[in-house]
Amino acid sequence: TADGVTFANEYAATTTFTMPAKAVTVTATYKDLPTYAVTVEDGTGGGSFAEGATVTITANEAPEGKEFDKWTTDDGVEFEDENEEVTTFIMPAKAVTVTATYKDLPPDTYLVTVNSGTGGGNFAEGATVTITANEAPEGKEFDKWTTDDGVDFEDENEEATTFIMPAKAVTVTATYKDLPPDTYLVTVNSGTGGGSFAEGATVSITADEAPEGKEFDKWVTDDGVEFEDENEEATTFIMPAKAVTVTATYKDLPPDTYLVTVNSGTGDGNFAEGATVSITANEAPEGKEFDKWTTDDGVDFEDENEEATTFIMPAKAVTVTATYKDLPPDTYLVTVEYGTGDGNFAEGATVTITANAPELGKQFARWELDPTTIELAPGNTLSSNPLSLIMPAAAVTATAIYEAITCPEDQELDENNECKPVIPTCPADEELDENNECKTTPIFNRENPVIGVIGVQTIYYTLKGEPLGNAKPATPGVYIEKQGKQTKRIVVK
Q1: How far is CA 160 from CA 135, 153, 191, in A?
Q2: Largest Cα–Cα distance in the chain?
Q3: Mean pLDDT value across residues 209-234
Q4: d(CA 82, CA 92)
Q5: With bands split at pLDDT 50, 70 and 90, how would you rate the model's confidence at 430?
Q6: What integer pLDDT is reported at residue 43 of this predicted model?
Q7: Choosing a second label site near 163 at 20 to 30 A (CA), which of 122, 139, 146, 414?
Q8: Over 70: is that where the pLDDT of 281 sits?
């Protein structure tokens, strides 16, 4: 001011001064705020901005084969959305550099259009596309899938099927056909299985649970059909060319029977004291396996750990429950072709497999394993039988391979799959010696001292071809008897 007053703080936007005895004029003056540089790499929006300003930045168009990925910076600012090509941030009291980054475009995808069904979308070449037909219109049923785009359906006649995506767009269509004509109504009183059926169809019916104090008696009808078994709660009949009504009937329970209730299984009913009750557990839920049977009613199961077991009925009602436990984690199937040792095993387990005994004329040669990279237990080779292997984290198929047994020219195969020497057939005037060779036997004639020849003799051998002499063996066993050219086996008892 030019009027000589003194401000308490001349640099504060709000201040005070003491009024003199004259008019005073005061003036507020201003200066530029400091600004800081914004540098935008691979984008626009750079410049100078004051602290607190909202800075808008835009990424450049992506290079060929790329698409925008995100914004990055080493200067600590927070983007409104780092994944948007156009975004903002609040300017700090320092210079800032921001960078637009890019990534490779995903592989080419092609459009699948599904008429009268679901499963459409964009898919890469080689992808497995699953499609499902819509519910058939009234009076129709699903017929098949059609397309003009050359794809092969896994099963064109199934409402839910798949195909492999080609490198082009595909349109598929679910088609429908008229329901077969001439169906007739089945009405089931006190049971299930009713509906519309064509003439000649097999109709399955099941009686409802018997009322308290009753049990199922038989099926009855006035429409002339013949039940497969009228006395069974679940039975069948052949549909005639007319509507049919069938009725499940019930009768009083015999006296002194007691109710068995089976939770998570079958075998319920009413049983007399002392009766053997058979129960069977339901199939285990996914990821579970049967554990054991439990009851609070004091009965003893024949085997509580078996899915199908029995107990003796006491003189009271009984409730039994099938329980389940989690399947052991990560087990894999071993399948043995021409051998034993199949089963499910955890990764790292030592699995021992054994080839079946070979048929006559063959011998075990080796194992073929799939996958071929399976680790064998120490001391084992593919020629080992039994073979021990280390279970991988995958299913394994092991196949026993056999080969024909080849004997030397002077041997033949016996019934034990062993090569044994061939016993030659000698002429009538010769015999086998201790070397299994045919020889003539000279003798000395005292009256006429010349060499003669012995006639046909009987010689005995072991099954291995070892000569035993002319005397029939006394030790029990199986032997070979040779008379001239004739050879046979004998049994000594």
Answers
A1: 11, 10, 31
A2: 190
A3: 95
A4: 17
A5: low
A6: 97
A7: 139
A8: yes
Between CA 222 and CA 193 the distance in angstroms is: 17
**Which of 118, 97, 2, 21 has its CA nearest to residue 55?**
97
Report d(CA 377, CA 61) in Å as an integer. Answer: 60
pLDDT in the model for residue 209: 94
Residue 82 near residue 121 (C-beta atoms within 8 A): no
Cα separation, 122 vs 491, in Å, equals 82
Question: In the structure encoding, which two tokens stand for residue 161, read together?
Answer: 């099927």
Give the contacts of 172 (CB within 8 A, at least 6 positions apart).
Answer: 112, 113, 114, 115, 117, 131, 145, 146, 147, 149, 151, 153, 163
Cα distances (Å, whole numbers) of residue 446 to 29, 441, 451, 462: 166, 16, 10, 35
More confident of the two residues 456 and 79: 79
Picking from 194, 142, 198, 149, the residue whose alpha carbon sits closest to that of residue 170 is 149
User: What burial letters (b/e) apply to 30-63, b meaning 16+ CB within 10 Å?
Assistant: eeeeeebebebebbebbeebeeebebebebeebe
Residue 324 pLDDT: 97
pLDDT at 365: 94
CB 26 within 8 A of CB 16: no
pLDDT tens, 327-343? 877 889 999 999 999 99
Average pLDDT over every residue of 121-126: 90
Burial 267-288 (b: 16+ CB within 10 A, else e): bbbbbeeebebebebeebeeee
Radius of gyration of the chain (CA): 48
Nearest to 204 by CA among 236, 245, 240, 229: 236
Where is 189: in which H helix or E strand? strand 183-189
